[in-house]
Amino acid sequence: MDVETRRRRRIWWTAVVLGLIAAGFYLGFFYVMSKG
Amino acid sequence: MSSATAHEAHHEEHPSGIMRWITTTNHKDIGTLYLWFAFIMLFIGGAMALVIRAELFQPGLQFVDPQFFNSMTTMHALIMIFGAVMPAFTGLANWLIPMMIGAPDMALPRMNNWSFWILPFAFAILLSTLFMEGGAPAGGWTLYPPLTLQTGHALPFMILSIHMMGLSSIMGAINIVATILNMRAPGMTLMKMPLFVWTWLITGYLLIAVMPVLAGAVTMLLTDKFFGTSFFNAAGGGDPVMFQHIFWFFGHPEVYILILPSFGVISSIVPTFARKPLFGYSSMVYATASIAFLSFIVWAHHMFTVGMPLSGELFFMFATMLIAVPTGVKVFNWVATMWKGALTFETPMLFALGFIIMFTIGGFSGLMLAIAPADFQYHDSYFVVAHFHYVLVPGSVFAIIAAVYYWLPKWTGHMYNERLGKIHFWLSTIFVNLTFFPMHFVGLAGMPRRIPDYALQFADYNALSSIGAFGFGFSQLLFLYIVLQTVRGGAKAGDRVWEGADGLEWTLPSPPPYHSFTTPPAVR
Q1: What confidence tens digit (pLDDT) does each residue in B257-313 have?
Q2: Cα separations (Å) of B485 from B61, B157, B427, B488, B489?
Q3: pTM
Q4: Among partner residues B108, B183, B216, which is closest to A26 by beta-carbon distance?
Q5: Which residues of B touch A33 (CB under 8 A)?
Q6: Model pLDDT for residues B62-99, shown as the tens digit of each residue
Q7: Could you give phi then psi for residue B439, rounded to 5 degrees?
Q8: Neighbouring-strand partners of residue B381
C-alpha cells in the first residue's frame, strides 16, 4: 500500500470515528433522557 | 505525489462564473464563500441590533411592538453566533490551515463544499420565519421551554434550521480535524503547528462533542411540541430545568468555540508585529486544551438562579473561576511576547491589541458573574449583556477583523489602505466601548435584559449605547469598502507580506496558487 493510499484510509477512518462520536452524543442524550 | 499532480490536472478545467462557486471543492474558494457569507450575516444581524438599539434609544415604545422586539433579540443572537462568527472562523480555517500545515487542500474537499452550501439554506429558512404567522422566534436564543414552545408556525422551521447549522458545523469540524491530523507536511509535528491550527484542532473537537447535544435538545423540543412527548413538560413528568442543563452543556463550550480560534489569530499577529517569537508556545497549547476541558464542567453558572444544591453552586463557581488561570496564561504570554519587542502598529496589530485589552475587560466581568451570590444580583441584567458583548465583539469580532487585515494581502495579492484601516480601528474601538460600557452601569443599577421599555433612570446610558451602536454599525461599512477596494486592486503585496511574519503561508506567492502545496514544503 503506498503512502497516499494509507493517508486516504487514515483520513476516512478519522472522519468515521469522529462522525460516530457525534452520532453517539446525539443518540446518547436521547437514551439518558428517556430513562428520566 | 502522483495523485496530487493528477488532482491538479483535474482542477485545471474547473468551471468559471457561478458554477465555480457552487461546485468548488477548493479550500480557498470555500474559505472565501464562508467569509463573504459571514460578512453578509454580520450586516443582517447588525441591522437587527440597530432595531433593538433604536427602540431602546428612549424609554417607552417607539418603533416596534414588544413581540417583534423579542424576535429581534432572538434572531440577532442566532444570526451573529451561527451565521457570522462561526462561519467567519470556519472561513479562516479553510483558507489558512492547509497553507499553514503545508497541505494541498482540505482532507475531505467534497464534504467541505457540502458543509458550506447547507448554510445559506439554513439561514434562508431561519430568516423566512420573519414573514410567518406568529412572527419569528421570540423566546430568546437559549430556546428555553415552555416559553419557546409558544412560538407560532416558526418553531419547526427554526428547529430544522438549527439542525442544518449543526450538521454543517459538525462536518466542517470533522474535516478540519481530519486535515490537521493527516495532511501535515513531513516534519510539521503537532508541537510545531502554528497556534491558529492548534486552537482550531481543539475547537473542532469541541464542535463534534457539543453540536449534537444542541441538536438533541431541539429535537426534544420538537417532539414535545408535535409528538406528545414530555421531556421538558412538568405536567407530563418532564423537567423544564433539564433543558437548561442540556442547552448550557452545549452553550458553554460554544462560547469557547467562538473565542479559541480568536486566541489563535492573536497568537499569530502579536509575534509578527513585535518581531519576536511567541512567548511560551507550549504553555499556550496546554492553556487552550485546559480551557476546552474546563468548558465542559462549568455550564450551570448560566443558571445559578434556577435553584440547585449549595454544593452544586460552589462546584460550578470554583470551576468557572479556574478558567481565569489558563486565560491569564494566554494574556500574560501575549504581553510577554510584546515585552522589549520592536513593535509597530499596523491595523492588524491595533485590532489585536484592542482584542487583548477589551477581551480582558469581558473576562473580568465574567469572573464577577462567576461568583454565585453576586450572580443572583447580576443575573438577566444588562451587566450580563455588557459582559458577553465585550468578549464577543471586541473579542471574537475584532480578532476576525484583525485576521482579515493580516491575511487579506496574502489572499488577494494587494495591500489594503493602511490609513483607512487605522480610521476603521479607531472608529470601531471608540464606538464599541460607547455601546457596551454603559451597559455595565445600567445592569448594575437593575435594568433587566430582553425588554423593549425601561424605567426613566436608565435613559441617559441607553441613549449613549444606542449612539455607539449606530456608530459601530456604520463604521463596518468602511471595513466593507476597504475589503472591496483591496480585492479589486491596490499596491502589490510581496510573498512575506509582513517583515516579522513567520509560517508556511508566507512562503507561497500572494495570491497563492489554486492548490497551496503540490509538493510538501520542508519544515525546519
Answers
A1: 999 999 999 999 999 999 999 999 999 999 999 999 999 999 999 999 999 999 999
A2: 41, 38, 19, 5, 6
A3: 0.95
A4: B216
A5: 216, 220, 231, 242, 246
A6: 999 999 999 999 999 999 999 999 999 999 999 999 99
A7: -65, -30
A8: B448
